Amino acid sequence: MNSIKKLAIIIVFIACGTVHKAQDSGFGLGLYLGEPTGIGMKGWVSQNGAIAGAMAWTFAGDGQLHIHADYHRHSFTLINVDKGQLPVYYGIGAKIVFQDNPILGARIPLGINYIFDDAPLDIFAEIVPGLKLIPETDFDLAGGLGIRYFFGQ
Asked: Which overall architecture, per CATH, does domain 3-150 show?
């Protein structure tokens, strides 16, 4: 693994691993299934804000390593549920795809996140329009489903 890949992996772990509180204000780690597919992370940085990311493999092209990190802003009042919480979120982020000509781009995640009352888990679904910036400009679409376990419960 070259030094650029190692540096990118370290940056994602530092950005996503700096918060350790409770479930809707702590750090979670789990699976991200979709495009890309891999390990997903989420760290709450405020009552309504979180940093989420993934280290994953993209199925587009030659199946290369994909790393992304996003800021999510949550609205807990749009959908009411009897048990747990069901916030809707939106945000902005960045991605890098490691291949012969690395791709650098912007992401705009839109999703829904179910937070369990009685378990240190959350599940989510998101769709992510994006803009590839380097090596060429182009629109793209990603998204997925996931589950995360929150530590320190």
From this structure: Beta Barrel (2.40)
